[in-house]
Amino acid sequence: MNEGQYQAFDEQDKPSPDLIRDCVHCGFCLSACPTYLETGNELDSPRGRIYLMNAAVNGEIPLEGSLVKHLDMCLGCLACEPACPSGVQYGSLIEAGRSQIERRYERSTFDKYYRSAIFSLFPYPKRMKLMLPMFYIYQKLGLRSLIQSTGIIARFSQKLSKMEEMLPEVKSLTFPPELPEVIHAKGEQRYRVALLTGCVQSVFFSKTNEATARVLAENGCEVIVPQNQSCCGALSVHSGRLSEGRDFAKQTILTFEGLEVDAIITNSAGCGSTMKDYGEILKDDPQYSERAEALSEKTKDIMEFLSDIGLKGNLQNLNIKVTYQDACHIGHAQRIKEQPREVLKEIPGLELIEMPESDLCCGSAGIYNLVQPEMSQNLLDRKMGNVKQNKVDYLVAGNPGCLLQIQKGIKSNGLNIKTAHPVELLDWSYRGSID
């Protein structure tokens, strides 16, 4: 029972008082938190948000106003977790807090339908593919340029305007080709792996999946690509839609658990971090908890896996300058920082130039740039200030959302820099040509 007068949280997915008490209020998280660095407001820091959640758990504040505002403002980038000397599991707390908001807080009519539209589309690759011809026509007939020049969408809604800005270029009326179910290893087979193709990744970044499969094959891996994959649940879990996220997680387990593979490969930061966390997400489900742990243990980011097994094959000279952006859910959530850099440095003729604040969030953060456009833009502006400090040919990042966000920043700043997933550079080096 709450001791205070309010019942901000119910018992379903309630932020754990034990996890809240792990925070000793030392403040080490402040300098790591992008939103605190922007606003200087204590309540926009992990420590401040934990304070609010503790007050809500104790019935001292209602589920409205400051509590909702500052939990919504969190990126969920988890930069605070590596910085925390007490090992506070902030990710679990913010996801639980957001689940209370998603289930019990009455948002405005526009926000309710806007968020519903996002989650009715992005976790479903087949639905997105059906939209591709419309996106193609919209862009090729000049409608996009016309609408952007008038600013009509922004006058109606900054959030809708941001969504329109983030639409990737669609280059064909046809759907991207699906990978074959089995891709054989080149030369002697060293490993057998399965590939998660992802939602946004499979529709708008199919070249990244193709590159991933080719690089794995070059390194002696037989690649299994299960057909009709569902969303892994990352967008839902990180946004507090925990019941929906668990359903997606269970479906992913059913898809992959029967495969006799050495690893399950991901090439999207949020997908990888969520799948590695399935054991925690499904810990209270007696039917799935052990199966979730087993799948989590097999999940590997592509650059992590290549670093572990060592590169094979003939890498050719690329003669390019590259900088690396640490996608938050690779660098912070999965603690993978050196492996991608080490692998990239093995490419002949590739000069890796470190970017200041390479591990500070770019403002993409799942759907964050669609629901918090102002803060997202502030963080993108800061990121572009750092990008400008080095002259490079490519900026690489292991997450499609980061690439879309940074592409937008590069275009608006008139920079002559291209973006790619790091595995694509390996693919180019193996093939001896840059796409």
Fold-level CATH name of the largest domain:
Rossmann fold
Number of domains: 4
Provide the CATH architecture of the largest domain. 3-Layer(aba) Sandwich
Distance between the termini: 61 Å
Radius of gyration: 22 Å
The CATH class of the largest domain is identified as Alpha Beta
How many strands appear in the DSSP assignment? 9
Strand content: 5-15%
Largest sheet: 5 strands, mixed
Average pLDDT works out at: 95
Strand order of the largest sheet: 1-3-2-4-5
Task: Detail the topology: elements first, then pairings.
Blueprint: H1 17-21, H2 34-39, H3 46-57, H4 65-73, H5 80-83, H6 90-104, H7 109-121, H8 125-140, H9 143-150, H10 152-156, H11 158-165, E1 182-183, E2 191-195, H12 200-204, H13 206-218, E3 221-224, H14 234-238, H15 242-256, E4 263-266, H16 269-276, H17 278-281, H18 289-298, E5 299-301, H19 302-309, E6 320-325, H20 328-331, H21 338-344, E7 350-352, H22 368-371, H23 373-387, E8 394-397, H24 400-412, E9 418-420, H25 422-431
Helix pairs in contact: 3-4, 3-6, 13-25, 19-21, 23-24
